[in-house]
Amino acid sequence: MNIGVNLILGVLAIVYGLYCYWQRKTSPEKIEKLQTMIERNGEKMGHSIHLFGYTILPIVAGLLLLYAYFRG
To answer: Do 13 and 58 touch, CB atoms closer than 8 A?
Structure first.
């Protein structure tokens, strides 16, 4: 059985993005990077930057890696 690097990285990226989303929803006060972004950029922009960089971007990258793996 040959498991590709794209498959492993894709799954890990998606899991990481979903974990960050779950952590943001359950206990955002415990995320140090989020708190730093809020202090530097304000409440709304800090949340937006963190959501994009730690949730949306890893999920999209993971989906693209899975697509590349299954495409051949």
So the answer is: yes
| Alpha-helical runs (H) found in the chain | 5-26, 32-41, 43-51, 57-71
**How many whole angstroms separate alpha carbon 3 and alpha carbon 8?**
8
Cβ distance 67 to 9 under 8 Å? no
Residue 42 region, left (φ>0) first, then alpha (ψ -120 to 50), else beta?
left
The pTM score is 0.88
CA angle 31, 16, 64 (to 5 degrees): 135
Determine the Cα–Cα distance for residues 33 and 24; give it in Å rounded to an integer: 11
Q: Per-residue confidence at 72, pLDDT binned at 50, 70, 90?
A: confident
